Amino acid sequence: MKVSRQAAILLLSALSAGLLLSGCSHSSDDPGDEGYKGPTLPARTATMDAWQEGPPKPRQHKPYPYDLSTHCGIKWAKFGGLWWVLDTVFPGVEQVKGEPAQDSQVLAGYMTLIGPDTADFDAAGMPTMQFVPAKDEPPGCA
Question: Can you give the pLDDT at residue 100?
Fold first, then answer.
């Protein structure tokens, strides 16, 4: 395919202008933003003598160290004094940098209260898992 010299110069000029404009964007910690720089939280490792469940009254949009039990599967979480149930998994951009922990009974990560009816769990090597308030307490393991 032949491209005229004028067309090539016009294309390169347009690309250069686009790069200059995008260089003015701000950095961001939100994966949906244009200036997103990648995972912002460090990977965690759970220790049984220091189990992390976050505070009784978490603040919105603040990630708290959280250890999610995987013994009976990843469906239930107790956070902020309430039981939550897994609602949605968002594959894509990771929020936690580092290697995933190798413990098969606990997933060490962070729980973030997004709103009164949404909490997100993030761990290294895992997609964001979104929880909603549970109507009932979880059943025991079968």
Answer: 73
DSSP 79-141: ETTEEEEEEEEE-SS-SEESPPP--SSEEEEEEEEEETTEEEEE-TTS-EEEEEE-SSPPPPP
Q: Are 104 and 70 in contact (CB under 8 A)?
A: yes
pLDDT at 34: 58
Q: Which distant-in-sequence residues (6+ apart) come within 8 Å of 105 by Cβ?
A: 69, 70, 71
Give the number of residues written for the chain.
142
Q: What is the pLDDT of residues 24-40, one digit of tens each?
A: 333 344 555 554 455 57
Distance, CA of 26 to CA of 19 (rounded, Å): 14
Residues 40, 98 contacting (CB under 8 angstroms): no
- The pair of three-digit structure tokens given for residue 55, joined into one six-digit string: 């505070």
